[in-house]
Amino acid sequence: MSSLRVVVWGENVHEHKNPKVGAIYPKGMHAAIAEGIRERIPGAIVATATLQEPEHGLSEERLAKTDVLTWWGHLAHDQVSDAVADRVQRRVLEGMGLIVLHSAHYSKVFRRLMGTTCSLHWREADDKERLWVCNPGHPIASGLGPQFELPAEEMYGEPFLVPPPEEQVFISWFEGGEVFRSGCTWRRGNGRIFYFRPGHETYPTYHNVTVRQVIANAVRWAAPQGHWPEVGKSPNARVHPEPIRPKP
Ligand code: ZN
Q: Apex CA 47: angle with CA 43 and CA 52, to 5°?
């Protein structure tokens, strides 16, 4: 089997604006996410791409050779070009897996694929988050216990305005009392999509071993399953007989 090809996309803005974020993620959040995937999927080819690169690092050629793309963004969703968002959406329909992280719920790519606002409630108050595994047999929950905790995170609360997920893997509880559907799957065309909630930039969430396990599990799960043909002329069109005309 050929190696799984993963691209970790990062907006890469907070890291350079906020010294607190830069201290937690000196090489960028994308570098920490990529490191976690490399640790847990040793055979995978894991690269990064950022907003600032030409075509945001997501050229047609590169996306054609990507099996799974992970996406983190927050401040600069509107700086992602429509051409690149179109391209990512098309690749998902063809079969590329997409892992959408934290504030990327508002990314162009995710909103297009969902077709809804993807809005939610939030609060930045160092809430403890407990993520309950509500689908323990799911491959994305592989190796996890019944629940795991993050000592401080941004709170996201319901309603999360997305289409009903096909599968619910995690539900979060926050110490403020809110709950949130924090691990959800969908399919669009031939592509598998996983949304995973934790990952606010001012917390070391992408260094957390369980979070890294979930992301690696999700990358494996989202790998392409088949191929999505271009739909056009019927493959049988050539063999259709000439219509039988009545004799004059
Ligand atoms: Zn956040």
A: 175
pLDDT tens digit string along 151-200?
A: 999 999 999 999 999 999 999 999 999 999 999 999 999 999 999 999 99
Cα 155 to ligand 1 centroid, rounded to whole Å:
8
Q: How far apart are CA 46 and CA 66, in angstroms?
A: 10
Q: How far is the CA of 3 from the centre of ligand 1 (A)?
A: 32
Give me the CATH number covering residue 171.
3.40.50.880
Tell me if 163 is assigned to some domain.
yes
Total domains, the chain = 1
Rg (CA), the chain: 20
Whether 9 is in a domain gets the answer: yes
pTM of the model: 0.92
How many Å lie between the centroid of ligand 1 and the Cα of residue 150?
Answer: 14
